């Protein structure tokens, strides 16, 4: 089974999609990587879902990626006496350290770190931005604010601080526990929520020790402001437009999305576009025209993957949502403008032998109209470099390590195959030709190009190209 598109699809598993039958149907509809949201999943449920996905993987004999999305720090106000209060625009409202129930004038804020971070003039956004407060005074026990937007506020609603950098890391005690559970289950990626600074990523990398890909969700202004450092430390980037649209002006989000996508592509890091892509399909069998345009725009930008959240987790039309996303992506990639955009946005290779080899493989493949680019990759770096070139030619990523093939399942254009390691250059050519033929990416008599690192199995040492004919009885190379 191979996809007829290069962009990948990530779908969130939830109550609507957690059975084995539904997970298999979602994969067959087009899902390449499954997301497990740790905000709503226990360690027992995580283990159960990973077991189901691996069982489906064995049945279909295709590597499937698994992403565990960590909750991150959740900031919430305390409780109100009557569960809900009416707010008067322009009035003062206080958030304080007193634990008694709140009213129309004040509420408990059980987060001491906020009192150390908020300054006069800073905004506090409550309930996903439905209530906006402006700090008038902070004496580190009470934050006195003015109500700028909002009429009602309920108990335990979330707090966002777009102007304040909290002196705490992105990993809570729950996140550390969830990360260790994800590592024990051998998931392929973990996503970090509410990252503010590069140091937040460094802590997760120290715990992971290379056993899992670390994906940073860019959803705070502080992360946008330090984007180059964030990308450098991350294995992948997610444009998490939900919270990004709360903490930053909505009209700024499309431009930020393009900026993040292009920066990640230049760095050769996978980039995922997420949140509300087909939101109406939670309850409707067909998307809006605007949603189709949103998905298409992400594909035109060359994103590695597009993601479904509530649409597949709790929606009534999870499979239809995946099928819709698949159809939109295939149609975009057939559009004449798509190839032109990929070519125009192509990044110059970095001054390394591995980058030069990958760029040359793409150029040779397109000049000679080769059937496929086959890259042998043990660490995944050769596959990432091949994808970074965004070639018109299909890419086959061959790896003897299942974890590498699964991790690459969300990378643009890679058709991942788990294969025995080659024992020699001739064996490598034979394997590449045989797999290209059996996977339906090349026909007898066509040519492919092969990239690898020599000595074979050396991680990150892409230094060889070979053009070969796909034959019937043994393979002859040029």
Can you walk through the features of this model?
The chain is α/β, with parallel strands linked by helices and 478 residues long. It has 3 domains: 8-72 and 171-334, Alpha-Beta Barrel (TIM Barrel), CATH 3.20.20.60; 84-160, PK beta-barrel domain-like (M1 Pyruvate Kinase, Domain 3); 353-469, Pyruvate kinase, C-terminal domain (Pyruvate Kinase, Chain: A, domain 1). It contains 17 helices and 21 strands. It has helices spanning 20-29, 43-60, 112-115, 173-184, 198-208, 221-225, 227-233, 241-247, 253-267, 289-300, 310-313, 318-334, 336-344, 353-367, 381-388, 402-407, 425-438; strands spanning 8-13, 33-37, 65-69, 84-86, 92-96, 106-108, 123-126, 131-138, 142-149, 152-154, 159-160, 189-192, 213-218, 236-240, 271-274, 305-308, 372-376, 395-399, 414-418, 447-453, 462-469. An 8-stranded parallel β-barrel has the order 1-2-3-12-13-14-15-16, surrounded by 7 helices. β7 (123-126) and β8 form a beta hairpin. It starts with 7 loop residues before the first strand and ends in a 9-residue tail after the last strand.
């Amino acid at each position: 089974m191979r996809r007829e598109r290069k962009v990948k699809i990530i779908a969130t598993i939830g109550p609507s999609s957690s059975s084995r039958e539904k997970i298999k149907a979602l994969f067959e509809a087009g899902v390449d990587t499954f997301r497990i949201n740790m905000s709503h999943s226990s360690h027992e449920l995580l283990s159960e879902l990973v077991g189901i996905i691996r069982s489906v993987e064995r049945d279909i004999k295709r590597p499937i990626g698994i992403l565990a999305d960590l909750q991150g720090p959740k900031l919430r106000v305390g409780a109100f006496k009557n569960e809900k209060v009416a707010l008067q625009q322009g009035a003062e409202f206080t958030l304080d350290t007193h634990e008694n129930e709140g009213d129309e004038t004040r509420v408990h804020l059980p987060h001491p770190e906020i009192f150390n971070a908020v300054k006069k003039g800073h905004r506090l956004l409550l309930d996903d931005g439905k209530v906006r407060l402006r700090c008038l005074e902070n004496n580190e026990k009470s934050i006195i604010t003015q109500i700028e937007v909002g009429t009602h506020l309920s108990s335990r609603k979330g707090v966002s601080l777009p102007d304040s950098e909290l002196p705490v890391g992105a990993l809570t005690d729950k996140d550390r526990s969830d990360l260790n559970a994800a590592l024990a289950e051998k998931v392929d990626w973990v996503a970090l929520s509410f990252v503010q600074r590069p140091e937040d990523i460094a802590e997760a990398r120290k715990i992971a020790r290379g056993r899992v890909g670390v994906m940073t969700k860019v959803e705070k202004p502080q992360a946008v402001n330090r984007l180059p450092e964030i990308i450098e430390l991350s294995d992948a980037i997610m444009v998490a437009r939900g919270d990004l649209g709360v903490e930053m002006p909505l009209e700024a989000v499309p431009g930020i999305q393009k900026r993040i996508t292009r920066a990640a592509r230049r760095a050769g890091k996978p980039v995922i576009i997420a949140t509300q892509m087909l939101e109406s399909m939670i309850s409707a069998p067909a998307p809006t025209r605007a949603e189709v345009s949103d998905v298409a725009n992400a594909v035109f930008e060359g994103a590695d993957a597009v993601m479904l959240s509530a649409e597949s987790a709790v929606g009534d039309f999870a499979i239809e949502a995946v099928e819709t996303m698949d159809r939109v992506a295939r149609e975009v990639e057939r559009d004449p403008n798509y190839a032109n955009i990929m070519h125009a946005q192509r990044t110059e290779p970095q001054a390394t032998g591995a980058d030069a080899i990958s760029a040359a493989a793409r150029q040779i493949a397109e000049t000679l109209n080769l059937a496929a680019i086959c890259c042998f990759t043990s660490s995944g770096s050769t596959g990432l470099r091949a994808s970074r070139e965004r070639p018109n030619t299909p890419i086959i990523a061959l790896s003897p390590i299942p974890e590498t093939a699964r991790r690459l399942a969300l990378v643009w254009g890679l058709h991942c195959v788990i294969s025995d390691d080659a024992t020699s250059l001739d064996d490598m050519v034979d394997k590449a030709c045989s797999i290209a033929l059996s996977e339906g990416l090349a026909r007898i008599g066509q040519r492919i190009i092969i990239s690898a690192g020599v000595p074979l199995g050396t991680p990150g040492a892409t230094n060889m190209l070979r053009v070969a004919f796909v034959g019937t009885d043994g393979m002859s190379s040029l």
